[in-house]
Predict the 3D structure of the following.
Amino acid sequence: MAALLESLLSQKVDIIKVVDWLKSAGDEDKLSISELGLTVHKEEFVPFLLNFLREQSSQALTHGPATPAKTPSRPRPAAQTQVFSEKRGCKSASGGSGTRAASRVQLFSPSFVSPGPEGSHCLSGVTAFSSPSSSTTWSPASRPSGSERRGGQRIMLGDYMVSPPDFQHSPSFQSQKSRKKSGGNMSLGGRGRGGHYIDETGGRRSVRGGEGYGRIIEQVSPPSVGQLNFNNLEEFPPVGSSPISPAASKPTRRINPTPVSAERPRSKPKTCFTSTPFSKPSSPLSGVVPLEGSMTGGNSLSLQEERELLKKEKTKRAQQVGSPQPSSLEPCTPTKTVLKTGSNVTPEQQTTCPEPSKVTFSLELDLLVELYSTCISENLVPNIFLELFFVMQLLTSRSPHTHDDEQESLCAAHSHSDILERCYLRLVHNCVYFAVKVLENQFQLVAHLDKCTLRLLGENERVASFSPHLRDLLTQAQDKSTAKLSPSVSTFIHSVPFQPDTDNRSNFSSDKAFHIFKKQRDIFYEVLREWEDFHKEPGWNFDTALGNRIRGMMSQMTSAGNHSHFARLFLKQLIQMCKGPRVNSTSGDAPDADLLGMLGAEGLGRLKRLEERLIQPHGVVGPCSPPSFPGYQEFFRDFLQAASCCQLNQHLQDSLCQQLLQLDEVSILSPPASICERDKEEEEDGDMEQQDEKQRFSSVLLLARLLAKFLGFISFLPYQTSEKPSREIQDTAIALRSKSVPVLDVCAVLRNSIRRRRTILTVPWLVEFLSMLDFIGPRLLCYRTTLGTLLLLYRRLVLDRCEEMCYLNKLLMVSVLGWLFQIPVIPEDIFFTSEFTEVAKVEESDINVAGLVSDK
Amino acid sequence: MPLVFRRCNIKLGLASGAATKTVKQLFLTAVSDLTPSQVALSQLCAEACVDQILFPSSKMRLSRAEYKEIVRWTEKLRPTRRCMKILKDKFPSHSQSTLLSIFSLEYQKWIKRTFSRHHVPDVIESYYQRYLSEAKAQPTAPVLLELANEVDLSPALMARIILDRFLQGQDGGMPSKSVLNSMLKEPSLIPDQILASNVYQCTINDCCYGPLVDCIKHAIGHEHEVLLREKLKEKNLSFLDENHLRTMGYDKTPDIILEVPVAVEGHIVHWIESKASFGDDQSHQTYLNEQFWSYWNRFGPGLVIYWYGFIGELDCQRDRGILLKDCFPTDIVTLCHATQQDRSPESQNKDKE
C-alpha cells in the first residue's frame, strides 16, 4: 500500500485509476499495477491511507482530542513491520492496559472498568480521544441515544470551529487576554475534558494519535513483552491508572491527565527527525516511529511542572467563573471574533495564521484529498463522522510556534529523503488547505449538518480565505438546513399510572402478593426519587445507598411471585423516562440556540447558563463515544445491577423481546418514490400525513433502540468481563455458548428485515443491541454473521449514489453502523476484512427503501 | 349527654348533602340543647371548622418563622377555652382554625412525649386512689378534671386511664377496648354515677382528645371533602371519589381523582387530597410517605389542600408533582377551554387573598 501511495504521490500511477478502483463495488478487491509490479487490497490500502493522514497531521493538531483511528490493517509483509511490531507489541501489551483499555471497557462503566493485561488487543482509537480521567465522568451521559448522538457531534464540531487561534487576535479582546485564553481553551479542548490542557492535550494527542496507527502493526505479530516499557510509563503514567478506580478519579478529572504534556516540548522539534532513523529500515511506515522516539525518556520533572501550570490555570479559571462577567464570554462565541478577525493585529506568537499562498505540496495534497474523499464517499472508512471530525480538527489546527520559514526548510530538507516522509500536513496552511478541499468535496454530507455548525463553518475565517466558494455554499446551506440538535426533554418524571385492569387485586394470586406489590411500587419510586436527588453528589454510590433496599425488595418479590408485575412497571417507567429524544439533562442546550441573539441581549442568567455550558465539559466526547446509559437510563441500569435478580431479568427479557419484535413489525409507509433526487426540500415539505408518519416512525425507532439496548444489556450481563479474556478462555466459552440458543435470533431478524426492505428500522435497534455485546459475543457465529452482514450493508450504503433509499435514511444507517464499528467490544479487525463477503451475501437491490427519515 | 354525639352524627349525615352556608347553623342546632359549657366548646369547634369556609381571607400559608412563633406560644397553653382565647388574641391576623389546629398538633406532640410517664402501673394506681378519695369527699366536684390539670395530662386521657382502672377493679380482667370506648362515648353506660359524671366533664373540657373531638374532627374532614366535591362540580370537572376508586380495586385512593387532569398555577393535577388540618413538618412528612407519594406513584402529579393552612416552605415539591394549597384553587386551566379559562381566573382573583 505504501508503494501505491508513493507512486501516486510521485505521479507514477494515475489517480483516476486508483479512484475508480476504490469506487468499484466489492468484487474488485485487488488492484494490480503491472508496470510497478504492485498488487494492493482495498482493506489494506484504506487503513494505510487513513493512518498516513493522521500521522502526517499529528504535529499540527495540537488541540482537542485525537481523532481515533480504529483502523487495524491486514497483515503486511513481515519485512516491513517486524521491526516495529516488537516495540509496538510490548508497548501496547503493557502500556495499553492503562488508559485506552480502560475506556474501551467503558462500556459498562464504571463498575466494569478495569483493563486487563491484554488490553492492547482491545484497544482502539476510540479511546484515544477520551482522556483517561474524563472517561469515567462522561460515560453515563456521553452518548445520547438515538440519532441525537450525531447531534452531539455536531455541537462539538461547531465548537471546535469557534476558536481557531486567529480568532483570538481580534483587537476587541486584547484587554482580556487571560480570560480570553481560557475561553479559547474551553472550546478547544473543552469537549468533555475541560479545556485546560489544550496544549498539553496536543502533546498527548500526537502521541496517542500515533498510538492508533501503531496498533496496526501490533496486530501483526504477537506482542512480545518487556523491552520498551519506559515508554508506557511515560505515555500512561499515574493518570493511566486512574480509570481503574473510576470513583477516585472523578474529582481530579481536570488535572490528572497531565502526563501527556510531558512529551510535548520534545515532540515538537523531534518528530520529523527521530522518525527517520527508525523508519529507514522499513521505509514507508514513518508515522509509527516518531512517537516511539518522542516517548523515550520523559522526565517526571517536566511532568511536575506541567502539573503546576495546570493547577494555576485551573485556579485562574475558577476565579473567572466565580465572578461572572457577562462580557467575558465574547471570545468564545463566533460573533464578533469572526467578523472582525480580518482586521486583526498582533498575531500571537504561538500561532500562525494560515494563508493560502503559503501552502506547499498542493499537487500532492489535491491527490490525497481525492483519495481520502473517495474513501469517505464509498464508505470505505469505518465511520464517516469520525473522518469529518478529523477534517474539522485539521481545519482548526494550530501550528507550533516555529517560524514558517524554519519549518518549511525543515520539511523541505526532509522531503528529499522519501516521498512519504514529506511533511504534507505539517504546516497549518496545508492542513487547512486539505480540510477545506475535503469539505468542498464532501459538501453533500456537510450540508446535512445542523444550522449552527454550518454557520460556524461558514463564518470561519479560514474557510473564507481558502475557499470563498465553499463559504458561499455553506451560507446557502445554512438557510436550507433543517437538522436540529434535539432539544432536551423536561426533567420532570412521570409515573406509570395505576391501571385497574392489570393492577388491581384480581391480577394477583393472593392478598399478600397484592399488598406486597403495593409496597414495592412505592419503594421503587422512593428509590428513583432518592437517586434523582443524590446521584450527582460526589461520593454517592448507587449500591451503597440503594442496594440493600432494592435487594430487600427483590427477595420479597420472590416470595410473593410478583416479578412479572414489577417487570411491567419497570419497563413502563423506563420507556416513560428514557424514550424521549434526549435524556441527557446535564447539557441543557437551548434548542438551536442562537448565540448571536444570546450575546446581543440581556439576561445575566442567560449568560450564566451559556457560560456554564461553555465551561462545563460537554456530555459528548469525541466523535464516537462508547455505548453508555445517559440520563435516567443510568438509573435503570444500576437498578438492574444492584438487584441482580435472575427472575426479574428473565421476565424483563421476555417482555423486551416481545415488544421489540412487535415494534419491528410496525407498518411503515414509504415516502413518495421521488424523494431521493431532491432529498431535503422535498422531505421537509411533506404533507401533514407524512409529517405524522415521520413522527410516528421516529418514535417507534427511538423506542426500539431503547428497548434493544436494555435487552442487550440484560442478555449479555452474565458474560460481561472487565477484561478481555485470553484466547483459550474465549475458545472454551465459544464452544460452550454456541450450544445454547441466543435470546434473539439476530441473524434471522436482520435477514428478514433486508428481505422485506425494512433495514431502516431494524438496523438502528440491532446496532444498539449489539453494542452491548461482551468480549466473546462477537466471535459467536450468530453475532459474527450479523456483524458481517451489517458491514456489507454499510459498504453498500454509499451516500452519494442515488439509489432507492433516500439520503437521510442512508445517513442514519451509515452513522449508526459507523458508530458500531468503533465500539470497543467489536473486534477491530472486523472492518477491514473481506471474510464476510462469503458469509453473507447482500443483494444490492435488497437494500431497502421503506422507512422514513427519522433524524430530524 | 349522649345527645351531643348523636347530634354530631346527624349533622354529619346532613352535611354530606347540605350546602356550605348551613354548616355553622347545623353545628349550632346540634349543640342547642346542651349545657352552657358544652355549647361553648362546641361553638369553638364549630367556628374553627367553619370560619375558613366563610372567611377565607385570613392568612393561612405561614412562613416557618411565623409558625415557630405560634408554636412557641402554644407551649405555655393547655387545652382549655381560656387558653384558646389567649392564643386567638395574641395572633389576631391568623384564622382561629389555623391556630386551633396548630395548637392541637403541638399539644398532641407534647402528650406523646409525656404520656409514658403517666402510663405506669403505680402512677395509675396513685391517680386512681386520689380520685377515689376526692370523689368520695366531694361527689359533685369535677375532681378528675382538676386532677388532670394538676398533673398536666389531657383530661380525656385521664378519664380513659381512670375508667380503665375502674373496670379492672370491677371484674378483675382487662376490659375490652370496645367496651372502654363505648363507655367513654356514652358515659351513662358507666355503672358508677359519680365516675360517669367525672368522665363526662373530662371529655367535654378537652379540645384535643376524646370522643367528642374525634367526632368533630371526623365531621370537619368529611365536611371539607364534601366542600371539595361541590367546588369541583361547580367547575364542571368530572372526577372519581374514594368510594368509586375502592370498588374499582385501586390499592391507594386519594379523595379525588380527576378524570381529565387540569393545570393549577402551571402544574398538572391528576388527584386532589383534602386535609382539614394544618400542615406542619411532622404531619406533612408522614402524609408524604404514607399517602402523597403513593398517589404520585400511581396517578402522577396532584394537589393537596390543607384547609387550615400549612408551613409555606413545605410547598417545595411543586416541580416534582405535589402542589400544596390552603384553599380550592381559583386558577384552574382545563384542557379543552384553555383560552376561555385563562381569563376567568383574573376575575376571581379577589377570592384569592
In short: The longest helix of chain B spans residues 211-234. The radius of gyration of chain B is 22 Å. Residues 58 and 95 of chain B are 5 Å apart (CA to CA). Chain B has 15 helices and eight strands.
